[in-house]
Amino acid sequence: MKPPQNNSVTPSSPTGGEDLCVCTQTGPSSSDFRTGAKHETLPQIAANEISVGTILGWPVPAEPAFDAPRQGRELQLFHIGQAFLQFAWLNTGDCDLHLEISDSPDKNAQRVIVETPFGDTFCSARRQLGQQLSAKGFTLSSQSGELPTPFAVDVVGLAFQDFNHPRGTSHVATVWELHPAIVNLK
Fold first, then answer.
1. DSSP line for 23-71
2. What angle do CA 82, 88, 94 make, to 5 degrees?
3. Domains contained in the chain, number
4. Of the residues 18, 103, 119, 179, which has the fewest C-beta atoms closer than 10 A?
C-alpha cells in the first residue's frame, strides 16, 4: 500500500519532518468507521501481556455496525513488550498514525495494525515516536511508509475490530488492531 500524497503544507517539527500534532483531515470524521470507538483515551487499568501472534490468532466475529460502541475484547488494554515496527505513516484521511508491527524483523512476517490517534491526548506520544524514529534516520510523515530496517518496539493499546477492507500492506493479516495505541522504540 502506498500512502496517499499530501498536498497540504504542514508545519515542520524539531526533527525536520512534519509536526505530527498538526494535521488537516482530508476526510470527514463522520465517514470514518466506528470513529467514536477508536478515538478515546487509554484507560488506567492493568494491561494484559500479549504478542502480535496472540492478536493474529483472535477469532474474527461478525463485523460490527458502522457506529458500534466498544464491546468484549475491545474493552481490554493490552501490552506487547516485544514487536517490530515495519511500516509507519501519517494517514491524512483521519490524521492517525498508521503503524504495522510483527513478531519478528522478517519483512514478510504477518502484521497487525496499531494506530495512534490525532488530538491533544496523544500529541506527546506522536511527537515522541517521531523523534525516536528520526534519531534512527527515518522521518515519520504523510510521505513515509515501509521502514528499510524494522525497529524493536513496545506497544500499549486497546483492541479494536476494524471492518474487512483493503488496509495497510499485503502483510496485514487480521482486522484486529490496537487502536488507540502508543508505540515506543526500545
1. ---SS-GGGSTTHHHHSSPPPSSPPEEE-HHHHHTS---SPPPTTPPP-
2. 120
3. 1
4. 119
Residue type at 49 in one-letter notation: E
* Residue 106 resides in a domain: yes
Quick: pLDDT tens for 97-138. 999 999 999 999 999 999 999 999 999 999 999 999 999 999
CB atoms within 10 A of CB 73: 17
Percent of the chain with pLDDT over 90: 77
**Residue 4 falls inside a structural domain:** no
Residue among 165, 163, 170 at smallest CA distance from 145: 170
Q: Which three cell numbers stand for residue 152?
A: 524493536
Cβ density class 128-148: b for 16+ within 10 Å, e for less: ebbbbbbeeebebbbebbbbe
147-175 residue pLDDT tens: 999 999 999 999 999 998 878 999 999 99
Domain around 46: 29-56+73-185
Q: What is the CATH number of the domain that holds 176?
A: 2.40.50.140
User: Structure pTM?
Assistant: 0.89
